[in-house]
Design brief:
The complex is a heterotetramer of chains A (632), B (482), C (174) and D (101). Chain A has 632 residues and is an all-alpha fold. Chain A is 72% helix and 3% strand. In chain A, a hairpin with a 4-residue loop joins strand 1 and strand 2. In chain A, helix 2 runs antiparallel to helix 5, helix 3 packs parallel to helix 5 and helix 4 packs antiparallel against helix 11. The longest helix of chain A is centred in the last third of the chain and has 43 residues. Chain C is mainly alpha-helical and 174 residues long. Chain D is an all-alpha fold. Chain D has one domain: Helix Hairpins (Orthogonal Bundle). Chain D is built from 3 helices and no strands. The longest helix of chain D has 31 residues. The chains are: A mainly alpha (632), B mainly alpha (482), C mainly alpha (174), D mainly alpha (101). Chains in contact: A-B, A-C, A-D, B-C, B-D, C-D. Chains C and D meet through helix 1, helix 2, helix 3, helix 4 and helix 5 of C and helix 1, helix 2 and helix 3 of D.
């Protein structure tokens, strides 16, 4: 074991260096290589980083071991920001997720991006993305986190607008950037405040006992600043608007953004600065509220989506809301646990969606799908696993992590039980819309255009699906109520904090039971609604009606059709409208407002030197009067 | 009999070297037909000699500590050396990237070169002067040289307009500055920094408060004009757009270096004991500059105007450091050094694309540069990110340093304003990057000669190098000023 | 008493000259107004015992600089009468506003007694700006600024030569 | 009644303000230059009055330097005017307003 610890200390820098090397290599030579080679090299770079991380993680697997720090070089010692890696359970978990899922996405991309004119460029970005995210999670000070934070934002911009000739992609990239900048504002503000109070940025000093330096109000202020950062990066209300648009990028890139990297950064930041949040109940409650509202809101919108990736995008936002609820309930380990499981099954879902889109000839409208299970069995069955996992059906991964969060929220009591209620509603909706998604795509009768020839994707794409499906099925076992392995593993990273634990005993069973029943009900409800509708409509009104839209499908007869489904559909539609008009509009409007202010100022710069003179003299006057009034 | 004051050649060695260089350039330019072949050598030698002068100064300060000479006119200390070094670096990079401007002027090239040197002398004097009249003279030597440099490219369509605007407004600002000096003299009875410091520290009221306050305000206005702080910025966009591209980066950089150096000394010595009174107005100007510069820059269609307005907001950031009093000198100097180099480098790229005598550089022209000239496009990208304060560039370290100092100096509101502005600023910095890489166009393909390549490469190395590993420079600055 | 008379007469002359300068439609009249101001100021300098400066004022300013001005006025056409109607929107209001504010500010500072001035200066003897005394100071204490003025003159001459002798090459116009 | 330095300074302030007015209202570059010269002269008067009141000769010496600066400025400024005039046939600064915004 000690040898392995030494190994970790000596070689852990490779985890960052290997993807970076892949980036550098492909950047300069990639375009000269024959097609698959650039992708293979990128995959190898990421994969070897995963192997290194895995070996280096071994001594920590059993839990209870503290982190080690490895200084690479003096970056800014005067502000306590070295280029220093922190290898502790939290960063280990994140690193394994990023490199592990990331590698599979790399591999999958080799097949998916086949034939793209900028094949090697795509892999450059992918490697750079992984590098940035690894810098973020391995940092031992806030400045380095921020470095990764900005770089991740940059890379997401590059990947989202990868097909920049499509106006949608260019717009989406721009929007991601705008919104992320707002989050960055929160981050820098927190950064400056932390430095002003602690005189350093190092986790070693800031996070050990912040209570000695910060009073509660300042802890709240810094916490809120970091929450703003997380809202931007982790797509919470009201800044989530960039994430649905971000699917304009290549699908594997969406998988990377939605699952393993980028959006998890905000949750990670809150978890990492748990010691500060621990000081302020207000900040925690703000976090939990934002998370719960986001989870519910995004789930409602997801019900009305017809784009195969659109549903997934909103489900990501909703699931991120869960994670934020987790960390906001001081159940940091539960939040991270859900982050990990979600990373696995959401990557799976996106890659599966990519596989479908690929085989349908870039068709993304679910109304033109259906019955694909027969044509693409591997994709179909792995998606079934993923759907059940995200729906929270035991014993798949999503159940355990979601239950952990909800249970912890309930256990915290008071206001948090309201949060819990929102969480349960969201869980039902999640099961519902994910089932709808699955049914529309894979079950029922085919509704494709005649020129579509769906087929199963090549092995290089299905292999990651299968691996991830296995993960989605079993990864939950690392942390079950009987054996809190993952929680125990993470504890050294949170030892100075009052961790919120999940409920125990009977109450735990009740909570789990409620969640399970809710999930099953949601799945059943969704299945019945969409399966039945299909059959019925097919027989009664002919196939053409089917193609016309899923939202019309809500007009099904029967009790739940009228009393439940119709209002639900109306809500979903109204929410989607509100989303695209008001929330989106507000964010766009903010940018437009700034530009408008600039335009409004332009006449002052009239081009006439004499009017410049008036401005100069007027400014002088103001300053003179000010000085005279104040006295020097 | 005239009593000679203490004359210390070492105190003005770099200025001396530059002056000699300027004169030699002029003499060679008028006397030799093959001047064009000699000029690079003379320029190189002058820069080298100036560097040697700086080393001599450094050794002198290391051995004897700081010294005052010429009857209390000038001080030789590490801060002055640092600023002069920054100036020298700006000259070196400007000449490397803009050499085509000098050669393109033909027989006027020698004049341009000598004016570059002379303006540097003026602004260097501002950095080491501790006498208000010497400060004024330095300001004028520098400024008048810049007016001429702006107009020298009159073949370009708009250079004369730029020069006229610069000259008129600059002269008004000089007059305002000078009026401030006069009122300060009337109020304190002294023209030296030390005398003014003693006046403010003691309570020997020579002259009424109000007029003295007005004088101090006017004094600051003059310098704020030179760094293009809002609302004294209106000349900057037009001059940056219209003056010859080959030299305008240097023009902006030099004026900022000189005026910031003077402002830094102001808060360190003469106005140190009244810093509380001047802090808030300065902070207000800083906030105004940052916000106004950003708002204007966002709506610009021309890269040179974008750089000009971003210069306004950079002036605001620098002022933010100054407004904290003398406590942020290391941060201000770091910011200044990295910013001016990036500015010179960015304009070097502009002049490579548009031609050194050109006016204006619409974003349109930059479209597709990423494909036509990847090195320049990437370099400009790095420069833009550096100005925007992206981590891993020197710009981030500079901004962060200033922010934290201002925060500790009870200017939290200013930090928040600055942060908001720097968040918004990313858009206009990235605008050109998007145009270069993500939009198609078939503009000119710039030819990159080796001097320009070295100049840009050097700036790149400094920007990224100091972003990843700023320790050496910070250490040096801290040791020198501490 | 005589000082008062001198001040009133010369001051009025200076103001009248200044107003002529900015109000005359014809540049030559402006230049003459300027000249009047410069001479009036020289008189005031003498009354303040600044003899050397007064002499320099007449020789350099009134002599050299104004000649240069007149020369350029001749060069670019004496017959040009400026149309003084305002064309820039808001300019007149703005200009009058800031100028009036500046004037009011000066007046306020003066009237509020802030201008009252007690001399606790460095030297209490009346200064006498003779050539000898001024020269003593100029070449001793102020020797560095004095040298710097030479740079100023180099810059000015280089600039004048560089700008005025520069022939635009038609090919590169635009 | 003696004429105190304050009177001189008020006169100087008046001249300075008139100079500013000239710069802001006239569009002939030459007259604008002369207005700037007027401002510098106002400063000179302030220097001399202050120096006399303080019993300090530095004020007068400072004026000497201002004169040199003014001369240098005028030379360069007039050179610019001549250059503009040659190119555009006018010394009207309002016509130099192509760049704005």
């Amino acid at each position: 074991m000690d040898q392995l610890v030494t190994f970790a200390e000596q070689w852990i820098w490779l985890v960052i260096a290997l993807p970076l090397a892949g980036f550098v290599f492909n950047h300069f030579l990639g375009s000269r290589l024959p097609e698959p080679l650039a992708g293979v090299i990128a995959t190898l770079a990421s994969g070897s980083a995963f192997v290194v991380a895995l070996v280096a993680a071994l001594p920590w697997i059993d839990g209870g071991r503290h982190g080690v720090t490895v200084e690479l070089w003096d970056w800014m010692p005067s502000i306590g920001a070295e280029f220093e890696i922190l290898w502790d359970p939290l960063s280990i978990a994140m690193t394994l997720l990023v490199t592990g899922v990331g590698t599979l996405i790399h591999l999958y991309s080799v097949g998916y991006m086949h034939g793209d004119g900028r094949f090697s460029r795509y892999f450059t970005y992918l490697n750079l993305f992984a590098t940035s995210m690894l810098i973020l999670v391995l940092a031992n000070n806030f400045a380095m986190v921020f470095l990764g934070w900005e770089a991740v934002g940059m890379c997401s911009y590059l990947l989202i607008s990868f097909w920049y000739t499509k106006p949608v992609a260019a717009e989406a990239g721009k929007k991601a950037f705008v919104v992320n900048r707002i989050g960055d504002f929160g981050f820098i503000l927190g950064l400056v405040a932390v430095f002003a109070f602690f005189g350093t940025m190092s986790f070693d000093e800031v996070l050990v006992e912040p209570g000695a330096v910060l009073d509660q109000n300042w802890a709240t202020a810094i916490g809120i600043a970091f929450l703003v950062a997380a809202i931007g990066k982790s797509a919470q209300i009201p800044l989530y608007v960039w994430l649905p648009d971000a699917m304009a990028g290549p699908t594997p890139a969406s998988a990377l953004i939605h699952a393993a990297t980028m959006v998890t950064a905000g949750v990670y930041l809150i978890a990492r600065s748990a010691a500060i949040f621990d000081l302020s109940e207000t900040a925690l409650m703000a976090v939990a509220t934002v998370g719960a509202l986001t989870a519910l809101w995004a789930a409602i919108i997801a019900m009305g989506q017809n784009d195969i990736k659109g549903v997934l995008a909103y489900s990501t936002i909703s699931q991120l809301g869960y994670m934020v609820v987790g960390v906001g309930s001081a159940a940091f380990t539960a939040g991270i646990f859900h982050l990990i499981t979600h990373g696995v099954f959401k990557a799976l879902l996106f890659l599966g969606a990519g596989s479908v889109i690929h085989s349908m000839g870039d068709e993304q409208d679910m109304r033109k799908m259906g019955g694909l299970l027969k044509k693409m069995p591997v994709t179909g069955w792995t998606m079934a696993v993923a759907t059940l996992a995200i729906a929270g059906i035991p014993p798949l991964a999503g159940f355990w992590s979601k239950d952990e969060i909800l249970s912890a929220a309930f256990n915290r009591g008071g206001y948090y039980q309201f949060i819990w209620a929102l969480g349960i509603i969201t869980a039902v909706l999640t099961a519902f819309y994910m089932t709808r998604w699955f049914v529309l795509v894979f079950l029922g009768e085919p509704r494709w255009d005649s020129d579509a020839h769906p087929h199963e994707s090549p092995g290089v794409m299905t292999l990651p699906l299968v691996l991830l499906a296995v993960g989605a099925a079993v990864i939950g076992v690392i942390n079950t109520p009987w054996r809190l392995g993952f929680e125990h593993f993470l504890e050294p990273s949170f030892e100075s904090i009052h961790l919120q634990h999940a409920a125990e005993g009977t109450i735990a069973w009740v909570i789990a039971g409620i969640a399970t029943i809710g999930a099953i009900a949601g799945v059943a409800f969704g299945y019945l609604t969409y399966r039945n509708r299909e059959r019925k409509e097919r027989f009664e009104r002919g196939a053409s009606r089917l193609l016309s839209g899923a939202e019309r499908g809500f007009g099904v007869d029967g009790f739940y059709g009228k009393r439940v489904v119709a209002p639900l559909a109306a809500t979903a539609e109204a929410s989607a409208r509100f989303d695209s008009k008001v929330v989106d509009g507000a964010v766009n409007g903010l940018a437009a407002l700034v530009a408008k202010a600039g335009t409004a100022l332009q006449p002052l710069q009239s081009g006439f030197v004499r009017s410049y003179g008036v401005g100069l003299v007027a400014g002088t006057l103001v300053l003179v009067v000010w000085f005279v009034m104040r006295g020097v | 009999m005239v009593e000679t004051p203490e004359i210390s050649l070492v105190a003005i060695l770099p200025e001396l070297a530059l002056t000699v260089g300027a004169v030699v350039v002029l003499m060679v330019a008028v006397s030799s037909r093959r001047a064009a072949t000699y000029l690079p050598w003379i320029a190189g030698l002058t820069v080298a000699a100036t560097g040697a002068g700086l080393i001599a100064q450094y050794n002198d300060v290391a051995a004897n500590g700081f010294s005052v000479s010429y009857a209390g006119m000038i001080v030789l200390d590490n801060q002055g050396i640092v600023i002069r070094t920054v100036m020298l670096a700006a000259i070196a990079v400007a000449l490397l990237v803009g050499w085509r401007y000098v050669t393109g002027l033909g027989t006027r090239g020698g004049e341009a070169l000598s004016l570059v040197f002379l303006s540097a002398v003026g602004f260097m004097l501002m950095a080491s002067s501790i006498h208000f009249m010497l400060l004024f003279l330095g300001l004028e030597v520098g400024s008048i040289s810049l007016y001429v440099l702006a107009a020298l490219g009159q073949r370009a369509k708009r250079a004369d307009e730029a020069a006229m605007k610069y000259f008129l407004l600059g002269s008004v600002a000089s007059a305002i500055f000078l009026y401030g000096v006069a009122l300060l003299y009337a109020g304190t009875g002294s023209l030296t920094y030390l005398g003014v410091f003693e006046f403010f520290s003691g309570d020997t009221l020579v002259f009424s408060d109000g007029l003295l306050s007005a004088g101090v305000a006017l004094l600051f206005v003059g310098l704020l004009f030179k760094i293009a702080a809002a609302p004294f910025h209106s000349w900057a966009p037009d001059v940056y757009q219209g003056a010859p591209a080959g030299i305008v980066g240097y023009m902006g950089a030099a004026a900022k270096i000189g005026a910031i150096a003077a402002l830094l000394r102001f808060v360190q010595v003469p106005f140190q004991s009244v810093i509380e009174s001047i802090q808030v107005p300065l902070a207000a100007v800083a906030a105004f500059s940052v916000v106004l510069g950003t708002l204007y820059a966002i709506v610009q269609q021309d890269l040179r105007r974008v750089l000009a307005y971003s210069g306004v907001s950079h002036a605001g950031f620098l002022l933010m450091g100054i407004a904290t009093g003398g406590v942020a000198e290391v941060q201000v100097l770091f910011y200044l050094a990295t910013y001016v180099l990036v500015l010179v480098g960015a304009f070097g790229i502009v002049s490579l694309l548009e031609g050194s005598g050109s006016a204006g550089s619409p974003i349109e022209n930059w479209k597709g540069l990423g494909r036509r000239s990847p090195f320049l496009a990437w370099s400009l990208t790095v420069f833009m990110l550096g100005m925007a304060g992206m981590p891993a560039t020197a710009g981030f370290i500079g901004k962060f340093g200033i922010f934290t100092r201002a925060w500790s100096g009870d200017l939290e509101w200013l930090v928040i304003v600055g942060l908001l502005a720097s968040v918004a600023a990313f858009f206009f910095y990235l605008r050109v990057v998007v145009a270069m890489f993500f939009e198609d166009g078939d503009g000119k393909t710039p030819k990159l000669g080796w001097p320009a390549g070295i100049g840009i490469g050097l700036t790149l190395v400094i920007t990224v190098g100091l972003g990843l590993y700023p320790t050496p420079l910070l250490d040096v600055l801290t040791a020198a000023l501490g | 008493m005589s000082e008062l008379v001198i001040f009133v007469v010369a001051g009025a002359g200076a103001l009248a000259g200044a107003l002529t300068l900015i109000l005359a439609k014809h540049p030559v009249y402006s230049a003459l107004g300027m000249l009047g101001t410069l001479f009036s100021l020289a008189v005031l300098y003498v009354s303040q015992l600044a003899h050397f400066v007064a002499a320099v004022q007449v020789v350099v300013y009134a002599g050299a600089i104004m000649t240069l001005f007149l020369f350029v006025i001749m060069l670019i056409g004496v017959d040009q009468v400026e149309d003084t109607s305002e064309t820039i929107r808001g300019q007149r209001v703005g200009a009058i506003g800031v100028v009036a504010a500046f004037a009011i500010l000066s007046g306020y500072l003066w009237l509020s007694g802030i201008f009252s001035w007690e001399v606790v200066g460095t030297g209490t003897e009346p200064v006498n700006g003779s050539i000898e005394a001024t020269g003593q100071l100029l070449f001793a204490e102020w020797v560095l600024p004095f040298e710097v003025t030479s740079l100023l003159l180099i810059v000015a001459s280089v600039g004048a030569v560089g700008l005025a002798l520069f022939k635009p090459r038609k090919a590169e116009d635009e | 009644m003696t004429v105190g330095p304050a009177w001189y300074m008020l006169l100087a302030a008046g001249l300075f303000v008139i100079g500013i007015a000239g710069v802001l209202t006239r569009r002939n570059a030459l007259i604008m230059f002369m207005s700037i010269e007027l401002m510098l002269n106002a400063v000179n008067l302030t220097f001399i009055a202050a120096g006399t009141a303080l019993g300090d000769l530095s004020g007068q010496v400072a004026v000497f330097f201002v004169l040199v600066v003014a001369a240098a400025e005028v030379v360069v400024g007039l050179a610019i005017v001549v250059a503009v005039y040659r190119r555009r046939g006018t010394a009207n600064v309002d016509e130099l307003s192509e760049m704005s915004g």
